[in-house]
Amino acid sequence: MESALTARDRVGVQDFVLLENYNSEAAFIENLRRRFGENLIYTYIGSVLVSVNPYKELEIYSKQQMDRYRGVSFYEISPHIYAVSDNTYRAMRTERKDQCILISGESGAGKTEASKKILLYYAVTCPTNDHMAALGDRLLQSNPVLEAFGNAKTLRNDNSSRFGKYMDVQFDFRGAPVGGHILNYLLEKSRVVHQNHGERNFHIFYQLLDGGDDNLLNTLDLERNPQNYHYLVKGNCPRLSSVSDKNNWKVVMKALPIIGFTEEEKLLNIIGSVLHLGNTQFGEGEEGETYITTETQINNIAKLLGVDGSALREALTHKKLTAKGEEMISPLNFEQAVSARDALAKAVYGRTFTWLVEKINHIMLWGLLDIYGFEVLQHNSFEQFCINYCNEKLQQLFIELTLRSEQEEYETEGIAWETVQYFDNKIICDLIEEKHKGIISILDEECLRPGETCDVSFLEKLEDTLGGHPHFVTHKLANGKTRRVMSREEFRLLHYAGEVNYNAATQFKNSLMKLMEILMSKEPSYVRCIKPNDAKQPGRFDEVLVRHQVKYLGLMENLRVRRAGFAYRRRFEAFLQRYKPLCPETWPNWHGRLADGVLTLVNHLGYKAEEYKLGRSKIFIRFPKTLFTTEDALEAKKPDIVIMIQSGWRGMKARRRAKRRRQAADLIRRFIKGFIYRHEEYCPENEYFLDHVRYSFLKNLRKNLPKSVLDKSWPTPPPSLVEASEHLRRLHMRNMVIKYCRRVQPEWKKQMMQKVEASEIFKDQKDSYPQSVGRLFLDSRLEREQINLKVVQTLGNDKVQYGVAVIKYDRRGFKPRPRQLLLTNTFAVLVDRTKIKQRIDYAALRGISVSSLSDGMFVLHMPSEDNKQKGDVVLQCTHVIELVTKLAMMANKVNYVNISPGSIRFAVARGKEGIIDFVRGSELKVAKGKRGHLLVVSQRQF
């Protein structure tokens, strides 16, 4: 804030507390006007932000502006809504206490826009991830939806909020937004059926008619012209020059799916049904009974709401009374039927809006409060009464919390407090809400009274109960001058913001009390919005209108509260950091206690005792002129400081440059000296030292030589013996390998060669391979006596190299048949007892297929053009890894082994094909499957 004091003559002061004539309302408004003329719409009153609606877009809300205010102390730079947002956020994180931001002002002052700027700031600047970014997007997209359904054009504001909303934004321990919740208060449901001249219904109706496509309007049985609908013509304002309903419709339709709405929820059906309800007309019979003359509308409403048409017709034209368990149905007269229709329209829209807010809550702790502004209309109904009651309660809260926080700060800092006289509006709040004697209690009592009730009886009851109250006036109780401007059906309340006549609610009172409890539990920040003119024109400043708002918002009282004690306060470290150049003892750094440093500084500046006080952690300055004098002295001192900083910086750069030069020269000298020394002839001492290094390394190496080819350790050599050490390591390894190979027996060598081949084929490919590693491969799985002598004679000179029992499966029916598989050096034979059933030449073998599971199935693929073969051979063996390895090595077909993960295809005679399917199960099973395939269930390996 101090940085802008030098421009105060042109743009005014950024904080009203610094006004010299702080008791002058004219000086206050002149400061507002001067800043407004320079497009400086934000000004502080201490920690309270005053915002003047510019009625135009300003280039002060960019991402660069957000970064400028992010993490910066509240008073360091110019006032802004982002400063309040960031200060609240940082207070929440550092103090771990819930915060709330109260935004108040009359209708059209810019409260809703302020709340949107705050939400945008949090969505952009808070830490986030993909999930939180989506949440922030939904939070922002909820605004246009709520505005469409809850905002409308009034005489004072083209986008006036016709409901109050309190929005909770919830953060995790890192300060990232993780959710939100919206509480809505008092939707102005009467606007659905009636609007004053020059006003409109809720935006969504016009957006639907102007922006909805033809198919949607045909589905809802609607026409584009809003003049055709009874609920949209009352205000005689179907179009707005400043608003594009078609473009806003696109924004709403884009936002709905983002925040979780689906077409199945038929939200627009309800909106269309309300328009049809407004066009429902009634006729009156000879005996006074009412009937519906527009059956088409009833059918449309029933279709859109999904209700029975006859039941709807009955509800609009008859009333039902229940007494002692008996029901009585009687017809409504014409006026009652119209009232019932309008009441239904209001109820349908009101419940839809409540459901809409609850739906948004499902997808979403600061608090952000945006409610109606104070309203004084030509005809002020129950809605305006509740709106102004809510503003009274918030004004009372503002005064209480402002005074309390001010007092607490002075008490904490040990500073004496001077009492300030201010208007306490508690007397008006009690007039409205006091139990048994307040207006709301009297209204509830009158509504519950048996018999016919009317405005006249209600006014009489108010006069009897509240007749002597200074803030309550009726036609009967008023003086002659006041009677001339009041009708007999009105009563007047003297609010803090002005006098309001009402044409003659506990539920709203209770919800408002709940809101007050929520706000009282949080640390508050305030934004007070001001409307510069009623015409909504940029650049126009209506001094009379602004003065009225300054008065009823209590801004002068708030300023006097801040100035009653001291105009300026800062923590010791901030004050000393800014003004330390003005005192030689504190410049450039103060190393003692902060309080002593501040005292030294103010004594050097010549502060008088009555101009300041030192608290426990802050300095308080009473008069703005004291601060201005100090700031002017700092401005005068800045050229000297700049010269001092420049000379210091240049000296530091020169010293660094000289130091780098010295280091470079030293490095070059050492490199040259080293180069010369390394290329000189060795002296006897050098030769002796190198001999000693070699001898020591070799002696150590002899003691630590690896004892096995698996031991990869090796002593670290000195730099001069790195190359020799590597040669020795390779020679030693080669020597150990030769010795090991000489000790290996031929049988063991053959075993290892087979194991290596098995590893190449099956490692990480077949489930049963790990269990086979530790088992030796045998020369044969059949004893010599198990091979029939006749078969041996038939083989002749081809000796059996390996034999194993297998199961062969028929190619067609998959019938299992026990066989022996005998391997020779050039072929394999399948033997059935004494007879050779099939000979398989290795040269003709096209491949071997095995599954990846733990089963023992394998297929030998034969050439299809060989007429001697009947197709591929399907076999099963318990030693499949051993058998396939030996077969692949004997046939030289190692690269022809195929391991299939799911199924194996095999050839049947005459070009047909069969399939084996492999699955995991609890036990091994081989059977014919449902699709005609051979199904092999393999046990799971654990």
Automatic annotation (TrEMBL):
<comment type="similarity">
    <text>Belongs to the TRAFAC class myosin-kinesin ATPase superfamily. Myosin family.</text>
</comment>
<dbReference type="GO" id="GO:0005938">
    <property type="term" value="C:cell cortex"/>
</dbReference>
<protein>
    <recommendedName>
        <fullName>Myosin-Ic</fullName>
    </recommendedName>
</protein>
<dbReference type="GO" id="GO:0005524">
    <property type="term" value="F:ATP binding"/>
</dbReference>
<keyword id="KW-0547">Nucleotide-binding</keyword>
<dbReference type="GO" id="GO:0000146">
    <property type="term" value="F:microfilament motor activity"/>
</dbReference>
<dbReference type="GO" id="GO:0051015">
    <property type="term" value="F:actin filament binding"/>
</dbReference>
<feature type="binding site">
    <location>
        <begin position="105"/>
        <end position="112"/>
    </location>
    <ligand>
        <name>ATP</name>
    </ligand>
</feature>
<keyword id="KW-0009">Actin-binding</keyword>
<dbReference type="GO" id="GO:0005886">
    <property type="term" value="C:plasma membrane"/>
</dbReference>
<dbReference type="InterPro" id="IPR010926">
    <property type="entry name" value="Myosin_TH1"/>
</dbReference>
<keyword id="KW-0067">ATP-binding</keyword>
<keyword id="KW-0518">Myosin</keyword>
<keyword id="KW-0677">Repeat</keyword>
<dbReference type="GO" id="GO:0016459">
    <property type="term" value="C:myosin complex"/>
</dbReference>
<feature type="domain" description="Myosin motor">
    <location>
        <begin position="12"/>
        <end position="635"/>
    </location>
</feature>
<dbReference type="GO" id="GO:0006897">
    <property type="term" value="P:endocytosis"/>
</dbReference>
<dbReference type="InterPro" id="IPR036072">
    <property type="entry name" value="MYSc_Myo1"/>
</dbReference>
<feature type="domain" description="TH1">
    <location>
        <begin position="766"/>
        <end position="940"/>
    </location>
</feature>
<feature type="region of interest" description="Actin-binding">
    <location>
        <begin position="512"/>
        <end position="534"/>
    </location>
</feature>
<dbReference type="InterPro" id="IPR036961">
    <property type="entry name" value="Kinesin_motor_dom_sf"/>
</dbReference>
<dbReference type="Pfam" id="PF00063">
    <property type="entry name" value="Myosin_head"/>
</dbReference>
<dbReference type="InterPro" id="IPR000048">
    <property type="entry name" value="IQ_motif_EF-hand-BS"/>
</dbReference>
<dbReference type="InterPro" id="IPR027417">
    <property type="entry name" value="P-loop_NTPase"/>
</dbReference>
<dbReference type="Pfam" id="PF06017">
    <property type="entry name" value="Myosin_TH1"/>
</dbReference>
<dbReference type="InterPro" id="IPR001609">
    <property type="entry name" value="Myosin_head_motor_dom-like"/>
</dbReference>
<dbReference type="GO" id="GO:0007015">
    <property type="term" value="P:actin filament organization"/>
</dbReference>
<dbReference type="GO" id="GO:0030048">
    <property type="term" value="P:actin filament-based movement"/>
</dbReference>
<dbReference type="GO" id="GO:0005902">
    <property type="term" value="C:microvillus"/>
</dbReference>
<keyword id="KW-0505">Motor protein</keyword>
